[in-house]
Amino acid sequence: MRDLMRRIGARLVESEAFRSVYRSGYPDTSRNKVLATLGSVLLHLHPAKVSRGSIRLSYTFCLGGLSAFVFLILVATGLLLMFYYVPSVERAYNDMQDLEFVVPFGLFLRNLHRWAAHAMVILVIAHMARVFYTGAYKPPRQFNWVVGVALLVLTLMLSFTGYLLPWDQLAYWAVTVGSNMARNAPVIGAQGPFSIVGADSDLSFMLLGGRSIGQSALLRFYVWHCFALPLAAAVLMAVHFWRVRKDGFSRSL
Questions:
Q1: Are the CB atoms for 63 and 240 separated by under 8 Å?
Q2: Closest listed residue to residue 71, CA positions, set 172, 180, 158
Q3: What is the C-alpha to C-alpha distance for residues 222 and 89, in angstroms, rounded to an integer?
Q4: What sign does the dihedral 51-56-59-62 (CA atoms) show?
């Protein structure tokens, strides 16, 4: 049986399909391992060499990887939820009710998306705190720290924009409070003490598409939550991983 499996494996790694993926051949030598890493998108995201201390569980707690994993869960569950949700003030709440009581496993799907969103906020904040307290933001990783801060902001914005989509009383008044805070923001708020922009160009107006929470606000929140912000987060995550690859993992203190 072992000989049979060995022959099958040899035929597989010598096949044209395997050679089209790994042109250097099976990574059985140090040279082939390096060539396979450099020639693969997935393998290239991980550095070829890392220090033992920098990948110790007690040092990283896998917070960065868990954050990326939860983001993938959110993307997958969000795509499934989009099949049953229409961003309309007449249908949004009824669609959420159908997800809970009519669609098979709809309640599980919605709760999985909701709790994954909460987990991502907690994990990203914990990851930033870990990087700060271990000094992993120091040279030459300053730029990647800035990218991480931008990802934290995007994570919070994703949570806020998703709040309105159920179109219930909790969502409506929570977004009302948030939009009023934006309206009173300094410089960019319509009622801020240092406002320098027009009355119809402040942050609250751009966020809601008007002065009240209605169809325009729901549509804008839907576009931001389902398309613009996830796309921006995916691009910054790719840059973040690439810089980790180039800068190397930080050493434990």
A1: no
A2: 158
A3: 12
A4: positive
Q: Which two tokens stand for residue 118?
A: 């909460």
**Is residue 154's pLDDT more than 80?**
yes
Share of the chain above pLDDT 90, in %: 53
pLDDT tens string 199-217: 566 788 888 888 889 999 9
Alpha carbons 212 and 209: distance in angstroms, whole number:
8
Annotate the chain with three-state secondary structure: CHHHHHHHHHHHHCCHHHHHHCCCCCCCCHHHHHHHHHCCHHHHCCCCCCCCHHHCHHHHCCHHHHHHHHHHHHHHHHHHHHCCCCCCCCCHHHHHHHHHHCCCCHHHHHHHHHHHHHHHHHHHHHHHHHHHHCCCCCCCCHHHHHHHHHHHHHHHHHHHHHHCCCCCHHHHHHHHHHHHHHHCCCCCCCCCCCCCCCCCCCHHHHHHCCCCCCHHHHHHHHHHHHHHHHHHHHHHHHHHHHHHHHHCCCCCC
**Burial letters for 14-41: b for 16+ Cβ neighbours within 10 Å, e otherwise?**
eeeeeeeebebebbeeeeeeebbbeeee
Q: Both tokens of residue 37? A: 């890493």
